[in-house]
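Record type: monomer structure entry
Structure origin: computed from sequence
Chain ID: A
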Amino acid sequence: MRMKYKLKTYTSCLLCILVLFSCTRRPKGVISRQEMEETLYDVYLAQALIQANSRYVSPESRDSLLAGVLAKHQITQAELDSSVVWYSAQGEDYFKINDRVSKRLRDLQSELTIDESMSLKLRKPYDGFTLPPSVMLGKRGCPSAFGFEIDSLKFSQIDTAAFDFNFKTLGITSGAKAYASVRFEYKDTTVSIRTALNRNAYYSFQKPRISKHKLKKITGYIYAENPQKVLPPVYVYDLHYKKTLPKPKPMPIDGKKGRGAITKPRVTG
């Protein structure tokens, strides 16, 4: 009788442990926290595009845009739904994810507002180097292409040895003709990298490793063709040059100021 009681007690404890473990462990079919944050960020961006653009009137066009978001993150609608339900049940985790997503959206909105107000106030053309936070291509009244140019005079502001150009897209549909290209011009050769933008994704262009050639210029552009103006616009965002923090100022080797200190040479390009 005592053995049966002990066995029942052990079984009850084991069941309690399993229940607690199942509540905290992420089950199969539920995406990670980072994936959840990135997916919700793009879903909210897509919903904002739908509300702001009249070309997303039909259910098919809206479904196509949201389906593109799921394809970008390589998940299904069922996985997203299951993830939302599971993280909502966790409470604190879901609030943290939503807080981070909301902050990123507010930061993006702030950048767009500042960028728009400055452009209206200063009326200065784009300088070809400083990247805006986002661009809309193919929309009525907006350009079909965006480009940048970095010549040798601006190389002091970037780390050319580790240069790459990155961006994300939303609004790519099956009928869209969009592509991006980055060109690296050296003293005696040129390397062009071109890719079609056939899905909503994260795109990255990395500088080729050609150490024996001196880099002279980097140019690039993103193009979205929509001649009839019947397709939704392509939204390009999170544009940035990765690993391009300003180079540190030369420091005197002996730590003293004002004596014509010599700095160690730095090889770039």
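Annotation 1: The CA atoms of residues 39 and 264 lie 45 Å apart.
Annotation 2: The two ends are 81 Å apart (CA to CA).
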